[in-house]
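Note to self: the last two entries modelled the partners one at a time, which told us nothing about the interface. This time every component goes in together.
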Amino acid sequence: MVKFSDDKLAKVQEIVQRYPEGKQKSALIPVLHLAQENFGGWLSAETMDYVAELLQISSIEVYEVATFYSMYNLQPVGKYLFEVCHTGPCMLRGSDDIVTYIYEKLGIKSGETTADGMFTLKTVECLGACGYAPMMQLGKYYKEHLTKERVDSIIEECKKNAASNN
Amino acid sequence: MGVKLLLEKAHVPGIRGYDVYRSEGGYRSVEKALKMAPADIVEEVKKSGLRGRGGAGFPAGMKWSFIAKPEGVPRHLVCNADESEPGTFKDRYLMENIPHLLIEGLIVASFALGSNATYIYIRGEYAWIVDILEQAINEAKQNGWLGKNILDTGFDCEIYVQRGAGAYICGEETALIESLEGKRGNPRIKPPFPAVKGVWDRPTVVNNVETLAAVVPVINMGGEEYAKIGVGRSTGTKLISACGNINKPGVYEIDMTISVEEFIYSEEFCGGIANGKRIKACIPGGSSVPILPANLLFKTAKGETRYMNYESLSDGGFATGSMMGSGGFIVLDEDQCIVKHTYTLARFYRHESCGQCSPCREGTGWMEKILKSIETGKGKMSDIDLLWDIQRKIEGNTICPLGDAAAWPVAAAIRHFRDEFEWHVNNPIECLN
Ligand SMILES: NC(=O)C1=CN([C@@H]2O[C@H](COP(=O)(O)OP(=O)(O)OC[C@H]3O[C@@H](n4cnc5c(N)ncnc54)[C@H](O)[C@@H]3O)[C@@H](O)[C@H]2O)C=CC1
Ligand SMILES: Cc1cc2nc3c(=O)[nH]c(=O)nc-3n(C[C@H](O)[C@H](O)[C@H](O)COP(=O)(O)O)c2cc1C
Ligand code: SF4
Ligand code: FES
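The predicted structure of the combined assembly is written out below.
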């Protein structure tokens, strides 16, 4: 069963306090972020229903929002999500080569996850890092000025982290 | 070296923290402004000629003076930090490097507008910047610049940071407001403007990060002095985020009197074209503004030098000019394919259309498909005319300007580089490589 811990529930309350009385629906987007971080990196129907209940809004209002915004994953993703930007400015600096390289190295195309559930590759649109291209988002942070060598070391780092977390 | 008003201190070690920021003269504008009448602050901003840095260039002081003040209804200031226009990364630079400058500007603007609860709406991907901003807000609060009864004036103010979740359209101010209310980012029909009916139907001013940061120098130096910097109606300084095939991509503050040529070739700014290549074209104001070939970039159609300011960049209108837009400066070298670049932008706009209006929803999809087919050597000559026709049918026929933003790059690419489109149609085999 999905349920926030007490300190996360306190965080939800703190967010709701930011808005006028009765406008707790405004907390929906931040609370969905919190839910995605806490419940496995994606939003299941159960998670969305739980958020609806917390904010006293209907489930459909949550589904509407969750399906609109690209950062919400409606399906499970790998432990490490590589979101490589491929919009114009990044393309000018070689983002296509980076995407191809990841495909060759991990055997996954955009939208796919490795068989071990470790890596997911996604091509995404401009992330506001055009001057530091090519780039990808990995979790909360950006990895910029990508080269093949840098991609190698990022993959190694992820594998090491995964091993030490187990 | 030109004048620096925003980034002058951005590289002082430790400037992200409150103590250094304060010791470098930070928060003086709040001390000054909170002794003024709110209407007088608005007057100073009007005198400064400061124009909205989000892209539309609407005079900030005028917008502030338009805010409705119905009895008993709270008003809000919302800072637009959604920054999602391809080529644009200046607001991020400012928030990451000198976050207190934004917080300082927000306090002054909140006081001027009477906003007791001010929101920074930031694109969801800038997750780590949320931490930087919240830290700065906490420091400001601990030092008495935020919270209850600020500087004993009786003015209360809180600033909250709200993260988006991946939707370019939420940078459009009415979509942003919908998103802040916890809904899908579907733009509203304007008017009513947010200044009359904004978040939770309350009067709301939405301003860009850079606009609000610029309020600090405006108050410190006075509107008239600020207006002396720059040229004509392009007053003050502007942040330009430069990217693409140049030697020194990055964020630069310019005083809007330098020429485009100097901006690209001087060592102080872009440092010339990378790998010793020649320039082919440039999109000077973010992906939605018209692309210009090199011959119209350095000189206008009349043969005059083109400068990095609102008037000069738009000289010639859409036929031979472009726009200042958001300051996202994208440079393409001689090896780049205009068709492919335009295709990636069309794909971007199709991905980001909210889908409310059929010309935008359907048109962006068609433009992407046709551009892809031309780019991969499957296009016909008539497809070029079809593209032209589609973009024309989108422009001006939609609720918000995203439709126009999608149409303009396609129109300009065909206008100035039709030969490249035709080459693709005539050389299908070469296109496959
Ligand atoms: N920074 C970025 O990432 C992006 C910037 N843009 C820019 O956005 C621009 C379009 O923005 P819009 O907000 O649609 O332009 P707009 O011209 O409708 O409005 C500009 C501002 O002035 C205000 N305003 C205009 N007339 C008013 C009136 N009579 N009363 C009160 N307020 C009034 C609006 O509320 C808004 O805040 C484009 O030119 C483009 O350059 C577009 C995409 C992304
Ligand atoms: C599709 C679209 C996206 C926009 N994105 C942004 C944005 O990311 N940041 C921004 O400040 N303004 C953006 N704008 C412009 C805003 O609607 C609005 O004009 C601006 O926030 C007003 O602030 P300013 O007057 O300080 O420029 C966008 C407009 C459109 C049509
Ligand atoms: S123009 Fe496009 S993005 Fe704007 S409201 Fe219409 S469908 Fe949505
Ligand atoms: S185009 Fe990739 S970050 Fe902007």
